[in-house]
Amino acid sequence: MTRSFTRLAWTAATFTYLLIILGAIVRITGSGLGCGEHWPLCNGKLLPPLDLPTMIEYGHRLAAAAVSGLVLALAAYAWWLQRGAGSGERYPPVKTAYIALGLLVVQVLLGAVTVKLSLPPWTIILHLGTAMLLLATLILAARLTPGALTPGASPGIAGARYSRAGLLALVLGFITVLLGALTANLGAASACLGFPLCNGQVIPAGNYLQHVHWVHRLMAYTLFAYVVWWAVRSSDGAARAAPTAPGRPRGRGHGGVGRPGAGDTLTRPTIRSRSARPAGARDSPRGPRCRCRR
Predict the structure, then answer these.
(1) Is-cis flag, bond preceding 40, omega within 30?
(2) In a domain, 132, yes or no
(3) Closest alpha carbon to 273 in 288, 258, 254
(4) What does the angle CA 141 – CA 165 – CA 15 come to, to the nearest 5 degrees?
(5) Range of 195's domain?
(6) Same domain, 171 and 154
(7) N vs C: which end of the chain shows fewer Cβ within 10 Å?
(8) Whole-prediction pTM value?
């Protein structure tokens, strides 16, 4: 049962990702009003004449309808699992599926407001932000196993670990994307020329469009530097936590093997004296079998 839930969640997440890409194509091609100010119909019709802008916007709406159906199915499936999944065994509620349903409602309403108000920048940014939150919630729902396959247990993420560093990276990435959307919708994409500075200045002295663009760049630089620092730190931590090979001494020298006499526990070959040999033991005619150099 839970495997089907996971597959459905991943399918919904995939369609949501494609929906975000289609939304970007709508904005880049200027097709946001390809269906006019009509919603949910397109130019007042269920099947409108399809010129290029109308086709792009109409395809975006059809993808949104598919995502809506998948998220509704996911929430219904979560409710069914909670009720016992037809087997009499009750699973704890999958809250992420219900959160995704709530975000879907907000997303649909924002889409309608965006079209009715003729694409104001603030609604477009909120529309994108809600879509990204919906995608993150669906991915989280796909990673969650209801009850860890055991009735009565609390859901957990298989093989995943929360960390403050990872959450901070997500927040920085989310803010950077929203600032990018603000930069594009305000027409500030070309306000800063040159790279990495803004018009050759550390602090641009122009209008507010340059400031918006520059803040977006600073957030992108911060995100890049933080992710690099996080990756280096994680690799160093993994190297320190790596287990030593069985039978290999752990020393302070290179590769975990120390130098003799340098404080490492490196055992030298032990030479048995004749007095320490068992009674009755004889030497070989050629002498002792082992001659070790000291």
Answers:
(1) yes
(2) yes
(3) 288
(4) 30
(5) 161-238
(6) no
(7) C
(8) 0.70
